[in-house]
Design goal:
Layout lengths: L1 H14 L4 E8 L10 E4 L5 E3 L5 E6 L2 E8 L6 E7 L4 E2 L2 E2 L11
Parallel strand pairs: 1-7, 1-8
Antiparallel strand pairs: 1-4, 2-3, 2-5, 5-6
């Protein structure tokens, strides 16, 4: 009987410690994938880089997060994400950054 109670308690503790996957695709303004774009949690060093097809995947504990998407030459996008018990699919489209230089 004690063993059953111990296993039940152990299972309850392990349920709170699992990670959920956030994944998706990062594209440009015409839906072309952006390879090697940065995806990270705001205020941390935890994150990922998209693969050659613009796909990313991050495993997180349930909670609320701000994901930052960035790529050289494009405006940064910040998305608020709530992670619960099911995987999250989050696709993001980045817009080009317009930089104008002053005349010399």
């Amino acid at each position: 009987m004690r063993r059953r109670v111990f296993l039940l308690v152990l299972n309850l503790f392990s349920l709170g410690g699992y990670a959920v996957t956030i994944s998706g695709l990062v594209t440009d303004e015409v839906n072309h994938p952006l390879p090697y774009a940065n995806v990270y949690l705001k205020g941390t060093t935890q994150g990922a880089t998209t693969n050659a097809e613009g796909q990313y995947s991050i495993s997180l504990q349930p909670g609320n997060y701000q994901l930052v998407f960035s790529y050289v030459g494009y405006l940064q996008v910040i998305k608020n994400v709530t992670v619960e018990n099911v995987p999250v699919q989050l696709n993001v489209q980045l817009q080009p950054e317009r930089i104008e230089l002053k005349e010399v």
